[in-house]
Amino acid sequence: RIRPEVIPANEINVTFADIGALDDTKESLQELVMLPLRRPDLFKGGLLKPCRGILLFGPPGTGKTMLAKAIAREAGASFINVSMSTIASKWFGEDEKNVRALFTLAAKVSPTIIFVDEVDSMLGQRTRVGEHEAMRKIKNEFMAHWDGLLTKPGERILVLAATNRPFDLDEAIIRRFERRIMVGLPSIENREKIFRTLLAKEKVEENVDFAELAAMTEGYTGSDLKNLCTTAAYSPVRELIKQERLKDQERKKKEAKGKNSEDSSTKN
Ligand code: ATP
After folding, report:
1. What is the ipTM of this complex?
2. pTM to 2 decimals?
C-alpha cells in the first residue's frame, strides 16, 4: 500500500521570503490558512467556519507549489503532496482504501496541508467518457473524506490544490474550494521584484538594471525568470572553463615544442 510522503513543517525548504512578488496572494493565504490551522478553537461554526479547500489556478511555473509549501511551513503544518502524475501508477487499479489511508495519515500528523498538484487530473470532470472505474472510486472517496472535514471543526486539515486548467474541474469540485485564487503571469513591477528575490543572495554586477530586465521579459513566468538567472550565473563559469581550456592547450603546445627541440638536440 502506498504511503504518501509527509514533510514536517520544519523540513520544508521554501519560505515566503523566497517567493518574489505575489504579495496579495501571500496575504490571502495567511488569512485563510494560518489561523484555522493554528487556532481551530476560534472557528466554531456560524459565519466563522474554517476554510477546507483552496484552489490556486494559473499558468505553469507561476509559483503555486512554492506558495503551498511556504504557507505550510509558516503555519507549522505538515505537507503532504499528492500530485496525481507521480502517484497515478501506484494508485491506478487499487481501491479507494489509499485515499482513506491518506486522510488518516493527515489526521495523525496534523495540522496538515494536503496539496493536490494538477488537481484536474485527479478530480476532473466526473463523467469523463472512458473514465477508469478505479479513478472514479478514488475521486468519490476523496470527496467523501474531504466533506467529512466540514463536520469536524477541530480537525486541522486543509486541502490546497493547484491547476493550470481550472475549466476542466466540474461544478461539484469547484464548489468544494471555498476560495479560488488566481496566480497569473507577473506584471513588469512584479518581474522586477522576482528578479530581486532570485538574485538577493548572489553576487551581481553593480550596473545590472533590474527594471530594464523586467521590461525585457514580458510573458515570462517566475520559473522562466529563474531559468534565465541560472543561465546567467553559469556564464562566468563557462568563461572560466574556456580560459582553462585555452591555458591547457598553450601548455600542451609548449610541452610539445620543448620535446621537439630536445629530440633534435639529442640527434645532433
Ligand atoms: P506548475 O503548475 O508547473 O507546477 P507552479 O505554478 O507550481 O508550476 P512552481 O513549481 O512553484 O510553479 O515554480 C517553479 C519554479 O519557478 C520554482 O521552484 C521557483 O524556482 C521559480 N519561481 C516561480 N515563481 C516564483 C516567484 N514568484 N519567486 C521566485 N521564484 C519563483
Report:
1. 0.96
2. 0.86
